[in-house]
Design goal:
Helix content is 42%, strand content 7%. By secondary structure, the chain is mainly alpha-helical. The radius of gyration is 14 Å and the shape is globular. Bound molecules: 4-nitrophenyl phosphate.
Length: 148
């Protein structure tokens, strides 16, 4: 799960998808394309909205995307088109063919819909982001479980 800062959207996506999958079978992680929040916990508003749905993301810490991620993960989901461009540029350098997908493609196929960055927004924006990611992760989990 990739966003810009790895403190608002992608830690939520990581927590939500982890919650829907068997931890013995799947590893979900999140990163930022930027380095500002490396080592930081998620934004308090992301922690709060996740906790409101019984999902604990307190322990997550910011990490920056690296070329190794293309080897270590089978699929990369990005939150918006700017993340997509950044991730594809790094993928090119790593000579990898790991699939990279806009996460909302799972619910709006082919429409290139962004998960809006809630960083400068309020609690309502974080709630909306949670709901979008929850719906997308339902579809992703369904698909992954069928493959088992
Ligand atoms: P995120 O939101 O990409 O959803 O984690 C952001 C958080 C912090 C910054 C940008 C986006 N920042 O510039 O510090």
């Amino acid at each position: 799960m990739v966003c810009l800062g790895n403190i608002c959207r992608s830690p939520l996506a990581e927590g939500i998808l982890t919650h829907k999958l068997d931890p013995e079978q799947f590893l979900v992680d999140s990163v930022g394309t930027g380095s500002w929040h490396v080592g930081d916990p998620p934004d308090k508003r992301s922690i709060a909205v996740a906790a409101g749905h019984g999902i604990d993301i307190n322990h997550l810490r910011g990490r920056q995307l690296s070329v190794n991620d293309f080897e270590n993960f089978d699929h990369i989901y990005v939150m918006d088109q700017s993340n997509l461009a950044d991730v594809l540029a790094l993928r090119e350098k790593s000579n990898s063919s790991t699939p990279v997908t806009m996460i909302l493609d799972s619910i709006f196929p082919g429409e290139n819909v962004d998960v809006p960055d809630p960083y400068h927004g309020g609690r309502e924006d974080f709630k909306k982001v949670f709901d979008m990611l929850d719906q997308a992760c339902d579809k992703i989990a369904e698909r992954l479980e069928k493959r088992q």
